[in-house]
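Problem 12. The chain below contains 239 residues. Write out its predicted structure in token notation.
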Amino acid sequence: MNVISHPRQRQLMLIPGFMCDTSLWDSVRAGLEELGQTHFAGLNQDDSIEAMAEHLLPNLPSACVLIGFSLGGYVARHLAWLAQDRIAGLVLLNTSARASTELELARNQQQIKMLATYPYKGQTVRALQHALHPQRQDNPVLLTHLQAMSLALGKEVFIRQLAIKRQDGHHELADIACPALVVASRNDQMRSLDESEKLVAALPDAELHIIEDCGHMSPLEKPAELIQVLQCWLHKTGL
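Solution.
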């Protein structure tokens, strides 16, 4: 594996989460560009983790650092397993390797059925609030940003992403030999610390960083700390 330590040579591939577009990274974009050449992926065309990873594979930079957030973490993890010789490092933000539960699948199917009757108006305020720290759930800037991404991606993408059945991916982790960083948030209401700890335990070369006072949306809620964590990890690993 090629190790890249100079920011001008380092390639960063950013993969967003459920109903998130490239504006997810707006608050960290300047910091990311100081760390390397940035490539922003989208997850708009497929309805499975495997298809999303396969779709991104042809444009994957050589010796890149994959950074996947939430749903994008599932894709990044599978992509790192598929193309181990092309991945220098893996960063998993607010994500997991567990399978979808039957309750989650049932709720998603119910939402899809409702869209056959009711017009798409983006995600509900309650769903958006659940993604934020409890003390930021009424933050108008964050809520507006989340809803704007949801509306920009639209109904078809919403249905495709709701239809995803996430398979358990823990069996793939032992094969991912590159250095890995798992970032969790103390107040994440969508992904538990236990899920993050299981990722770290199963990856051969991984460390865990917990962001305090932060909900699920770490790139928007704690951008400065996230960049600092990435910078320190890249320096320490020599990537």
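Discussion. The radius of gyration is 17 Å. Students who got a different answer should revisit the alignment rule from Section 12.3.
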